[in-house]
C-alpha cells in the first residue's frame, strides 16, 4: 500500500498499475487496489482512466469500504471509522422526517397512541411489541 502512496505522490501511473495488478491477482475480490489506482489516475489528471476503472468496479459490484484511522491508546490500537457519509445521510433523513411531521400536523392529523403504547407496571407508556 505504501507503493500506491508513492506512485500517487509522484504521478507514476505505470508502477501504480503494476502494483494494482499484482494485488488484484492476490485478492481479486478486494476493492482497495482499484480505489487506490483510481486515486493515482485522478492525481495525475487521467480522468478517462478514473471513469473507466469506476465503471469496472461498479460492474463487478465493488463497494468502497469506509476509511479508518488508527490511533494508539495505552497499549491498544483503536480504529476510528469515518462515518461522514452515513452522518450526512442521517441528517438528511431527520430533516425529511421533521418536514413530514410538520406537514401531517398542519393537515390536522393526530396520532392514535392507543395502538402503539401500553402501560408498564408503574403506569408509564411503553412501546407495544410488534411480534
Automatic annotation (TrEMBL):
Gene Ontology MF term list: RNA binding
Keyword field: Membrane, Transmembrane, Transmembrane helix
GO biological process, any: RNA modification
The keyword NADP is assigned to this record: no
A Pfam entry, by short name: E_motif
UniProt keyword Transmembrane present: yes
InterPro entries: E_motif, PPR_At4g14850-like_plant
Record-annotated membrane-spanning stretches: 80-101
Listed name of the protein: Pentatricopeptide repeat
